[in-house]
Amino acid sequence: MKTLEKIFPWGVLTLGLLYVGSMMFNSPATGKKGFNLAGYELIPVLDGGRFKPIGSFARSTLTIISGKQTFIDKDNTRQPAIKWLLDVMSSFDLDEDRASGPALDHKVFRIENEEVLSFLGLEPRSGLRYSLDEFLPHFKQLWERAAKSKEKKNKDLFETKLFELVDHLTLFQQVAYKNSPATVVLAMRGKDEWMPLGKLLGPDIPLENLKQIPSAYIHLYLLDAYRRNDPENFNMVLEKAQEILKKKVPTGGDKIEFEVFFNRFEPFHQAAVLYVFAFILGCLSWLFWFRSLNLAAFLLAGLAFAVHTWALLARMYIQGRPPVTNLYSSAIFIGWGCIGVCLVIEWLYRNSIPTVVGSALAAITAGIIAHYLSLSGDTMTEMEPVLDTNFWLATHVTCVTLGYTATFVAGFLGIGYVILGLLTPILRGNGATLLAKMIYGVVCFATLLSFTGTVLGGIWADQSWGRFWGWDPKENGALLIVIWNALFLHARWAGLVKQRGLAQLTIAGNIVTAWSWFGTNMLGVGLHAYGFMPAAVTWLIVFVITQLAMIGLGFIPQRFWMSFQKEPPRPAAPSGISDLPRLPSVSKTSITASS
Amino acid sequence: MNPTTAIQANPPAANAPPPPGQAGAPIPSLKKDRGLLYKTLEFCASLRITVVLFLLSFILVFYGTWAQVDSGTWTAVKEYFRSPVVMIPLKIVFLRAFDIPGSIPFPGGWLLGGLLLINLLAAHAIRFKISWKRSGILLIHAGIILMMLGELFTGLFAIESRLTVTVGNTVNYTEEDRLKELAISDRSDPKVENEVVIPASLLAKGGLIQHPELPFDVEVVRYYPNSDLRNPKESENNPATTGVGLTKLAVAKGETAGVDSEQAVEIASVYVTIKEKGSRKSLGTYLVSSWHSFFLRPPEEVSVDGKKYALNLRGKRAYRPFSVFLKDFNTNFHEGTNKPKSYESFIRLTNPETGEDLDVKIYMNHPLRYGGETFYQSGVYGLGRGTILQVVRNPSWLLPYFSCGLVTLGMLVHFGLHLTEFLRRRIA
What we know:
The complex is a heterodimer of chains A (595) and B (428). With 595 residues, chain A is mainly α. Chain A has helices at residues 3-24, 37-40, 54-66, 81-89, 114-119, 132-135, 139-148, 157-176, 197-200, 207-210, 214-227, 231-248, 254-265, 267-284, 290-319, 327-349, 353-373, 390-423, 431-465, 473-493, 499-522, 535-554; strands at 44-47, 50-53, 70-72, 78-80, 109-110, 129-130, 182-188, 191-196. In chain A, α18 runs antiparallel to α19 (431-465) and α20 packs antiparallel against α21. Chain B has helices at 28-32, 36-44, 47-66, 73-81, 90-93, 109-126, 132-157, 200-205, 290-294, 399-427; strands at 85-89, 103-107, 159-166, 170-186, 194-199, 207-209, 217-224, 227-230, 249-252, 269-275, 282-289, 300-304, 307-333, 340-351, 356-363, 368-370, 373-381, 386-393. Chains A and B meet through β8, α19 and α20 of A and α3, α4, α7, β14 and β17 of B.
């Protein structure tokens, strides 16, 4: 190998490390002429049942309203969520009854529905984000229209989208009136109670008395200093505030600081970027420089995996919970599991297929799907009573999620079989058999994990409400995955299907898993007579169609597949064929169906 | 390295038994008698049939899930999984995209389970030899047989009921959710309460109900298995002629769908005309609704021959030899929110027959096992004034635990063997 080829993978790894490092030491938010916004992010508050930095609250609230953690202000500059929060909280002065200040001009309200836009007298624009000021004239009509259809059970698209906007406005109001989050801590009945500042403001409690409470005084002062554009005093009081408030957090202030760091780093976003590059490098490795690009892809995916792992552990530390507690964390975990399994397989087989498959899966689940799931707010909320058990969360939920993961990996390897076999020469010779072996191994794992996970769920149900198996939609979804994996294994042992058929079966397994993961949740929600479906249902259907298309492609007779051509193919790519992956030799044993 | 020499010249056919004399060959007597019995067993043991049965089970579970969009989980379970045949509505077959009338028959859970059991047992009789290599699969299959039997027994024998008690009170009965009854109680004697109950199945049939044990005749005007109460409008026809039925009207409500995020209990109501025995004189038409006990209202009363009888529509009640006294009930909330974190019931269970006196804390994921039944923290009653405990009697409750242990062990053995084989070959 030439020298350049030899050092290329390490160069790529270095670039990756630099990228990650630069994000880690991401310069914190500095806003309006010297206000220590980075410091303000660290202030602890209580919201949704957990203690968090106010920075997290700002980010998740802005995400709900706007879909992003940043916003564009009047001067077309991108600003951080914490600035938005301060602007909103200081937009209602104690004496005034109206809102004023820059918060009204921030384009944060995302309105996608055309009917709603025209109802509010707005024109569609790129980004679809509008400021309160822009539709303030139609405010009254908005509330009246919403009140009219409030009790309707089956709202149409217009009404649903209208209510989304109303929900966001209500959230905005809550923050503006300082009714959310809980920032003030009072000693009541022998223990510390946290409550929102807004609850204590008003004619009943004289301001002078309120100022006697340290946390209330701090927040009143900070908001006032911010409004008056007084960064010096703001920063000075902020420093003292940190010391006082940190002590009041029962779980200790360290987690709060760590969470702010975690938010700024955005590790899942970084990992997703690295996965995309690893995917590209892996695909390129089949065209030229195989050894070099294969290693580069592997190293980059490995780096992404390390970042991803760190991020998972960080979440576990912050929440004090096992890794999977809600739909968002399940997406993150599945992505992690996929790339983890694929890195192991890649290490064993070294033909870039696992790296490519794993990176694609990780980017899709932990990147795209997780992003969409994060739009509904805080991803680390507390849970309902039946889920308040770390043991079962760590065992059943983790196991079932790993079962999903393995079934997806097998399914995407199956897609790899069809695509690579049909369109490339990579699966010539031993290649197809190797890939089939990979798939078989992963399905074995999938069977074990999905079965054990499902059964653990049954035991949990028995311990919780006396019924091991209730045949409810979510349970049935998990059972379908077990049955499908078992069907694959038995069909293989019976010799009913060969390699190509087995690949197609695993692709169908993707559909089954997607159904179990998302479809079962949508049954009660998305299917109404009005003909429109929530976006998630549309995406699920699109996914199913793509998988069916893959299965369909698999039915093309194999004599037309590039990898199974009888005559050697004419060199199509200029430099690829001579440098094709050198696959390790395998001692082949013909497997009989049973016994 | 010769990659291809390992191909066997004549690979043995999939289902052929090993030649006699080799370890684990099927019992010679069976082999000699290659008559109808063996051929039938061979057919039943076919791996192809296994795959087909898996596919059919898959379809059944899938449609049994979709059925729960319109009907309750309980109904869907009864029709799809705990029956030999199910009529699947075409509407469900097409995933509710088209509203086509009619339905197609499909094998139900019991039929498919039975066939799978036969297939499995036949396969073991014909093909499987007892060997270390096969031990994993034997364990897995044994475990699965146990699990399917467990589900069968649960379907046949399990009884689920609930025990609702408010703080400071004692209760000595449980009520079933799904079976209901109209209870007519005579409370004239302070020491003993005499009850006669009419099961809901008779109420659903409607018409006149007469029985020597009943103090009067009961004519069912209307029975709603699930209902709502609301204020009657002027124009509406109100069947009730007396009592609370004059101020509240019961209206029918559909079954709670299995996919509803709020699994609301079904609350029944019935309009009955009470008629004097013999003279058939009407004493009034009453609305008797489970909503009344839900709201802790005193039951409707009918006077006959100077005696007062209480009318109560409730879940099928079973009186127990023990009593449960609720000392206290706690709801813990997530800090600073209205979101409940956990519920705790502090009860005292006394049994005069056995002399037992137990102080127990029942909370989520920590049930009480007593007298062959298990008591679970199910929910809150009346915003924290009381607790709802789920009481389950299921003699086969341990079967799933055994079966899961067996199957998991079997899988670890089987796939573990595969894995070590694979790794050994790679290292070689």
